Amino acid sequence: MEIRKTSNPEKNRSFKNKHFNNLREFSLVGTSYTLLTIILTYPVFFKIKTDIPGTGADSFQWMRILWYTKIVIKEADLAALTHDNLLFYPNGIESMPFSSAFNQILYVLMSPFLELHVIYTILWLLTFIIGAIGSYFLVKYLTDNKYAAFIAGIVFAFSPYHFSRGLYFFGAATVEWIPFCALYLMKTVKEEGVKNPIIAGIFFVLVAMSDLQYLIFMGIFAGLVFFYDFYLTLKAGKNFTYSMKQIIEKYFFFGGVAFIGVLPLTINEILIALSDQNYLKPSVSEIPNLSNDLMSFFLPSHLHSFLGQFTLDLYSNIPSWFAEKVNFIGYIVLGLSVLTLLKSKRKPDVKFWLISTFFFTIISLGPILHFNGAVTFTDSNLKIQLPYQILYNTIPFLKNCRTVGRFFVIATLGYSVLAGYGFSELLKYKPERKKLIFTIVGFLLVFEYLSIPYPTAQVNVPDFYYKISNDKDNYAVLEVPQNSNAGYMDFQYLYYQTIHNKALVGGYAARYPPNVNNFQSETPLIKELKYYSLGTKNVLQEDVNDIGTSVLNAYNIRYVIVHKNQLSGEQLEFVSDLLNKTLKTEPDVYAEDELIVYRVPGETIRPFMLLGDGWNNPENWEGTITRWISNKATLSVYSGVAENAVLKLSACSLHSPKTLEVYNGKTLQSKQIINSSLSTVDIPITLNKGKNTIALNVPEGTERPCDFPELKNNNTRGLSIAIQKIQLIDSHENISSRE
């Protein structure tokens, strides 16, 4: 058999050598950055079995997000991605299904083999390794200098911005795909064909799968690249029609891939943003507070191994979350960037990176200039307006971006590129000593960024949670203390849920609808345990000690878990006294974990009431809480059995007599005439087992106090009947009273 030889063996050999050299270079670079990551994040890697990187807090929430994705897939309930029923039980909460889809998918794939906290740490470490490699290849492509490229990888991946966000914010720390997207966008500008824009689109999707805010930031960067490409085309003087056709074709492919990949990740957020109840939009005050302070660019990180103790107090002047305050880029990088400006500013690529880096730096400062916490300057309290407001009013969905300071992540990439250009220029002075210069600059750069030992948090779980994890029944648990609003909860509760798999009353959400906390604020016993008070008065007359156990049973809340170490002595005394009187059972005490656990005794549910819709705010009428209704209001009544009961209340109409119709569902229970003088009314009702929705209807409609001169009241509300002292007398109480 004849063996056919290549027509050009020399070319074939050269091709093989090139690929071998590329593989060797990639392996060497990857190994070097891996070792640097292990060293510069010390002791994270060495505590991978017991700790996670950072100081806990949001990190526990992020681990819960990873876990919840697997729960949804395992139960084949994809609708639960957008409505999380395991938090803020029993109503659940609207959720962002793909906060960091890349990490969520990798967790699901790795979860059969490794524990949650180990996977979290591995993914966190990869943000440094892959991010450094991406920056290396970007700057290697731009400068054709591997020494400059390696320096650039250090600048981007190990920047104080990255270390600081990595303390809590897993999505914000997932920066690794940004340089790869930038690389292929630059290739799109410099090379013909559609391969590069397609790959750029894929990496753009990966950026979106890392953090949804980075999607918007990278989209703006891609827009700048498009205009840069257009500028180069005009400057080259090529055939305009042909050149524009090429540009449109390239960015059509980029945009098409990006759109197809991003839409499924963001459709839920887009619908919320376009709705009348856009709870994703932050308040006006949050945006300036979460913008960068100009001083933060020049102030070494509070995590710095040697300088952090001196800068910690200075950072306290900046009004932002601590992990969002740090944006130090380093004096070595600033020096190299200045060298780039002086030596290479006429080169088109350098000019692009200078402009884009400056642009994202300025945008990260937000709508007004901050310096050392101050927003007004000179004796006339001058405020310096910045360009961010223009973007805010023009870029779609930018209004939903709360942490404006994170725009600096793109600037960090820009500074790494400028540092690479500057280092290339520096080596031209002494090319024969490039290894020495590389070592010195690399050492100084690492010193400026040094943050070891990096903080870690233990992932200890109290034994009780492992105990109930073996219980396959579905029920909820109530943790005390509860969150005082939907934006705060002890984050470890969220991590404990990944062990016990039970629903939580309350929870945590960075963005949440306004009514998400209503259940905790309005439900008997749960309300008192939240506010540590029995003095929360309302129109409902109920004894929490009598109905508390019924409330917990009605909502299938099986355990109340009291965290002693998180309560003051006074709070602990109140909680213990209330639970002992209500549940009438001895709790289990886990002294080592400082837990007191009450198991809710099972019993027939006694009727209890909750206010529904249509009630005006409470008013104090000579010491008695009173609420007006308009033409309709509802009351929820829970009963363990079907029975007859009586609603007893005091009521009066606004001006003229009104008819009060009382329905249970669609069934009319009673019709009463309510006069303008306060009187007691008994309303017989028939209760079904379970939840009953009692509707109070006034067919005559409402009147406004301001329309009656004799009332001398300017109130413009539409009112009908005022109600107070609502009591529910069930059949058990009727029997007891007869006896």
TrEMBL record:
Residue stretches spanning the membrane: 26-45, 118-139, 146-163, 169-186, 198-231, 251-274, 318-340, 352-371, 404-424, 436-454
Q: Does the keyword Isomerase apply?
A: no
- Sorted UniProt keywords: Membrane, Transmembrane, Transmembrane helix
Coiled coil feature spans: none
Source species, domain of life: Archaea
Looking at the keywords, is S-adenosyl-L-methionine present?
no
Question: Which named protein is this?
Answer: Glycosyltransferase RgtA/B/C/D-like domain-containing protein
Query: What is the native source organism of this protein?
Result: Methanosarcina spelaei
